[in-house]
Design a protein that fits this description.
The protein has 475 residues and is of the alpha+beta class. Strands 1-2-4-3-5-7-6 form a 7-stranded mixed beta sheet, sandwiched between helices. A 3-stranded antiparallel beta sheet has the order 13-12-14, with no helix packed on it. A two-stranded antiparallel ribbon has the order 8-9. The longest helix is centred in the last third of the chain and has 28 residues.
């Protein structure tokens, strides 16, 4: 009665079948524990500035009327078009809407190349309310559209809110109102629908840009969607935590709901592939803290005019913007510049802590790779065989045997043949076939070799993992 084959024994550590030291790899993960502990102590909540003592005076129905009239009067405000020029200086344009407030207003004209339009003349309208400090707070909304008559999508809602916010700094009968602590700048930008061209020009050339503390951008704020705060910037540039915390608190107070935020995964993707359709981007790129208030989500879409325009939401977002600007103006803790963090679940993870964790995650892999190369070099194991064995452990499902004349081996000694053996048979030690007399069994890393014939002694199953078959024939 033939004896039943004994189960194969586990290969020795450091052999071709087990090239990775699992114990060392698991110990290397302890290097990740300390960065994770540091991250746990650096997670904070964004701080908010105190709320203003006076209630907001933003006129929601009045802003809705301005938005609808502005959009109907100047339908096609594509940069360089007649309606775009008329929306600046003609009756009902932005200069005409701001003229009753007796603000210091100017028009900054510049030229930019727009894909599909070529070199185009654009114009930014800037209205300034001088404050006790030259440091400025910018409230902006882009004035142009990409063509088509849609009230909320072309940001006529943001333009109307800009006008109503400027009205708050005017006294009765057009007289001068209360002088703010900081200089307040109202910016009606051009080219916002084509990559934030007006915002970029202001950040690079406007005289007020070097003293800007914060920027509040109003874009598409009259839809029925949830209020959203956009903070995406190029790379590690994010708005200051104080600006973000104050915006969250003011929107919650005015709209009665917590504003949406970019997802954690979305922020990580933006760090790798930065992209934003809103105009806080050019300011963050120049180190200026900026956010966008919107109701259109991370990727704005076009909705029908009648069903999408929501004057009530416009009033809520306008009051939230007014409360936020007043908090920033009265706050003494607002600092200039951007910071680096990831915002999720109402908390903030510092950028340097996240970078430390990502670097620590590389340590176990690096230790395993160095150990693999060291073992292979010390035991004179070919790296190709070690990598193939590691691939098999990961579940590649097949393995190549060494060559001989029976399986169409190449003529050179030691090159792998084209025969693919099932992984299941290889695990039982029965994957190899009987070698011809031209083949020899050689211990990996050793000069000892035992000749084998067709009916000769076969290699034992115990030594199988450490052996490899080389073809010595010239087939």
């Amino acid at each position: 009665m033939p004896l039943s084959p004994s189960p194969p024994r586990r290969a020795r550590r450091g052999s071709v079948e087990r090239p990775i030291n699992g114990r060392l790899y698991r110990i290397a993960w302890l290097a990740v524990a300390l960065p994770l502990l540091i991250v746990a102590f650096t997670v904070t909540r964004p701080e908010a500035l105190p709320a203003p003592t006076l209630p907001p005076t933003f006129d929601g129905p009045g802003a809705a009327t301005i938005a609808q009239t502005f959009a109907k009067t100047f339908r096609e405000r594509t940069p360089g078009s007649e309606d775009a020029a008329a929306a600046v200086s003609s009756t009902g344009g932005i200069l005409d809407l701001l003229s009753p407030f007796r603000l210091k207003t100017r028009v900054d004209r510049f030229q930019a190349t727009i894909p599909g339009l070529g070199p185009t003349q654009l114009a930014n309208v800037v209205a300034v309310v001088p404050g006790r400090s030259p440091q400025a707070i910018v409230v902006m909304a882009h004035r142009d559209n990409a063509g088509g008559f849609i009230v909320h999508r072309d940001n006529s809602s943001g333009t109307a809110a800009l006008v109503e916010l400027a009205r708050a700094y005017t006294g009765s009968a057009g007289t001068a109102g209360v002088k703010p602590q900081h200089t307040i700048v109202f910016l009606s930008a051009d080219g916002g629908a084509f990559g934030g061209l007006g915002a970029r020009y202001f950040a690079e050339h406007a005289p007020e840009a070097k003293n800007v503390l914060a920027v509040v951008n109003l874009d598409t704020i009259a839809t029925k969607g949830q209020p959203q705060i956009e903070i995406t910037g190029p790379g590690p540039h994010s708005p200051s935590s104080t600006l973000l915390g104050s915006a969250i608190a003011r929107i919650g107070a005015a709209a009665g709901t917590t504003p949406g935020r970019p997802s954690l995964f979305g922020q990580l993707v933006d760090l790798a592939f930065p992209l934003s359709l809103y105009e806080q981007w050019p300011f963050l790129q120049h180190g200026i803290s900026a956010i966008t208030l919107t109701t259109a989500g991370e990727r704005p879409s076009t909705d029908p005019v009648g069903a999408a325009f929501d004057s009530q939401r416009l009033g809520q977002m306008g009051r939230a913007a007014q409360l936020l600007v007043t908090s920033l103006d009265q706050g003494l803790e607002l600092s200039q510049g951007t910071s680096s963090y990831v915002y999720f679940a109402g908390r903030m993870l510092k950028g340097w802590a996240l970078a430390l964790v990502l670097i620590a995650l590389v340590v176990p892999f690096a230790v395993a790779v160095v150990d693999l190369f060291a073992r292979c070099r010390r035991r004179r194991v070919p790296l190709g065989a070690a990598f193939r064995a590691y691939r098999r452990r990961l579940g590649s499902g097949s393995e190549r045997c060494s060559g001989c004349s029976r399986c169409s081996a190449p003529s050179r000694v030691g090159r792998p043949c084209r025969r693919i053996l099932p992984r299941a048979r290889l695990a039982t030690g029965l994957a190899w076939h009987s070698p011809p007399s031209c083949c020899s069994w050689r211990l990996a890393g050793s000069s000892r070799a035992g000749r084998s014939s067709q009916g000769g002694r076969q290699p034992t199953r115990r030594s199988w993992p450490a052996r490899r078959r080389l073809c010595s024939c010239s087939a």
